[in-house]
Each structure stands twice: as structure tokens, then as C-alpha cells.
């Protein structure tokens, strides 16, 4: 059993200007500014290498990234760097001197993006099969952040300095991608290197093949005079742009709507004949069908079934009174339909889905091969924010054999909604959840009997979870499993300063406050953007390794390779 604390703290230093002030202001133009993005087209979880060449040493170069996401809403971020002695800016090596994020982060221009409409939260493409295209513009600027050829124009605004960057946008003391130092340290030992590990052997070759060999290059010519213009001399702006593409679906992956046997979901299959191990994906209190995660699982070699159970076509509008037998039917259907390798069917769930996958593993242990719980609960909860208003938020969520399962709010002497309901928004749901934990008898009645699970378990939690105390809940699960000598692997990654929204790399992590999709209550998921970005990256690497090991052990137990 392993339990790791993932910290986002460490040492870093800001980049300093190279050369004299005159070099930064006057010698800013070059005959050619070249911007490259490598790979140019790959899966969303592949980091990109952005490099600017051809700048004058010491020049300030601003990179601005724009991505059209769901609904056509443009998300944007920018950062200004100082070119090194060779006139190069390498985003995976260099820290910006100002902009949307701090510190060194190869994908900082993605995770620090904010929506131009100021309110959008959906960061994935619609439909999921569509690509996400990001355009990056590189521009030489003066120290006021204005284009180098426009120094004499009216200065109507000034750039955001590092010290003025929005709270939490920085990686002032961490490296999300570029650092080879592990951000994962064991709670019982010293920090160890944790390089990014490759996926399982059965994963689609298209997920990674030749991606590192792709490169998009853009060259821009500017002033061709022998001597660079002095500060304030009019000339064409020194700028260039390049685009790169992120995809949720690898080449050859197929998608199928499922509307049969009373089930509502979407099945994604890797290319080829198979068989492939399978994963069933369950959403949280927002409902719907989690296609982005299913698409990415399939792109890494898994038959992935995203099963909806409310707020989907033909499904109830609310989570209240959801029968567990529905999910057992979903697992049976998945086995019959795809005949997974080694009869392996894992469950992956987020938030209420994280609670659900643990409950399903305990209720139907022979049907569940492995469990991945993102920000899960150790306890059965009431319907809460996703409730049917006619039943109420203290009504039951889960039914078994037609009977409601006991939940933490039921006959609880200490539970109070006041910390969540009172005061100005955004509200922190976790504050109310903590009041319920003071009634030990109610906690015991609502505890998920995880000791009945017959397979490996992975838990991913956040120490600043605003929705509920997933860090504490995950420890409760691991302690229960240890007390019962659980004979399978148990892994727990607990992310420092991260919040409830742990997904996968590389997506914007800035939108912390939201209106709940069902109740409309303005809440915060907690965390800060840089820590959330670290959690997204590290969790996904760990999940892939966990699944590969679980499949290998399953195959070995069946005497197969």
C-alpha cells in the first residue's frame, strides 16, 4: 500500500534580463523571429515544446496563446520572457518575467488560460471528436510590454507584472512539466524521481508514435537594416505565430452511442481487433456522460464506456434514488459487448462518481477488477446539490434492492448546512460536510464497506478540496483497507493546494468558482491553478501506470501474458 503526498512547493528563481537596458529596449528587432511548437498535432496529454529563436539577446518576447473551446468561446493567456544570450526563449526552460503564470511550466500558456467571456467553464471540444487548436503569437516588446516598433505610441495600459499576476495563477515554486525532479514524495520516505512512464503495450500506437518528430515552425521577417533600430524608431513589429493541435481521440478510435438495455452512455474503442481491457467511467453530481475521459482512455488502449445515470438523454434529471443495479447492468453489458482482455473491467469515477465506484466495488466485488476514485468519499452521502427538489438534499442517493442505503446526513446529530448556506458566495460545500463527521455513529452507519473490494484501488485526492474533504475521505479508505489486510495494491496520491477538479493534462485550471449544474448554487471547488495543473498531470501519469499494472496482474493470475 502506498500513500504519497504530492507537493507543489520547491525552489525556483525568476529569469533576469540579459544585457544592458539599451539591449532590452533598443536592440529588439531581428531579421527573422522563428517560433516552433513540437509536436504540432498529438493527444491532449502530450506536452508541447514551444521555442522562439532569432530574438536579440536580452529582448523581451511576449507569447500569447488563444484556444477556441466549447461553444466557440476563446480562452487566452500570455507571458513575457527575456531571450537568452543566443536569442532563444524556451518555454519549458524559462520562467516568464510577467504574465498569466509564474515559474517554469512548459504548458503554462494552456493551464493559465481564462475565458474571454469571463464565465465559461467547459474546456473540452464539442463534439469530443473535434480538435482543440491553439494559436500562439510571439512578439518582441519593450519593457512596457508594447510592440517594439510602437514604443512612441500612447501607452494606455501596462502589462501584468509577476507580482500582480492573479492569485494562484503562478507556479512560483513548481515545475509542471519541464522539471525532471519528481513532485511526488512518499509520506514514509524521501522524494524519488518519477519520470513520465509509458502506457501499456496494448495502447494504440497512434497515441504516441511519431508525435515527438512533428514540429510546426513559423518564421517572420522584420527590419532588414544592418543596425537594429533605436528605441522609439518606427518599424514593422517583430512578431510571428504558430498553431498546435490537441486531441482527445487518437487516430482509429471509434465512438458509439449506447441506448440499449435501459443504458445510456457512449462507448469508445481503440483501433484494431482487440481484445482490450475495459474501463467504465462514471460522472459526479453534474451528471451527464463523461466522454472526454472515455475518449482519452480509449486513446491509450482501453475499451472505455462512459455511462450516464442522470442528466442525460432519457435519464432522470436528478441523482436522487439511483439504483445500483443499473451500474451492474452496465458492467454486464460492457463484458458481453467488448469481451475485454482478461475479463478486466475497471471503474473510474469523479467526485460522487468516486464515491460510487467504491460503493460498486464493495457491492459487486466479483464484477469489478480495479477502482480509480478521483476526489472520492469514504461515506455514502445524501443527494445534496444534485437532489430532486421534491425529495430534498437530505434524501437518499443510492438504492439497492429498491431500498435506500443509509447516508451520512441521516439521523446525524451534528450535521449542519449553515457553513455552506450562509454568507456571501462562493460557498464551500466541504465546510458543511465536515460538520457531519462529528457524529461517529452516523459516520459508521454511512461508511462504505471497502474491505469487500476484490481488486486494486487508486485514490486521487486534493488537500484544498472545496466540495468535500476528499483528502480525509481517501485516508479513511486506505486505513480501512489496511486494517483488513487488503491483499491488493492500494495507491493514494494526495495533492497539496489542489482543489476538487482533478481531470487530466493539459487543460485550463483557472475557473475555481462555478454555479452547480443542478442546484445553481455558487460554489468553489478550491485549490489554485498551478497546483491543480500539477494534480492533472501527475494523477494521469499515475492512473496509466496503475491500470497497466492491474491488467498485468490480472493476466498473470489467469496464467496469461
TrEMBL record:
Q: Where is the composition biased (Low complexity)?
A: 171-186, 203-212
Q: Where is the Acyl-CoA thioester hydrolase/bile acid-CoA amino acid N-acetyltransferase domain?
A: 45-143
Task: State where composition is biased (Polar residues).
Answer: 213-226
GO molecular function, one example?
Answer: fatty acyl-CoA hydrolase activity
Residue intervals of the BAAT/Acyl-CoA thioester hydrolase C-terminal domain: 323-551
Which keywords annotate this record?
Answer: Hydrolase
Q: Does the keyword Disulfide bond apply?
A: no
What's this protein's name?
Answer: Palmitoyl-CoA hydrolase
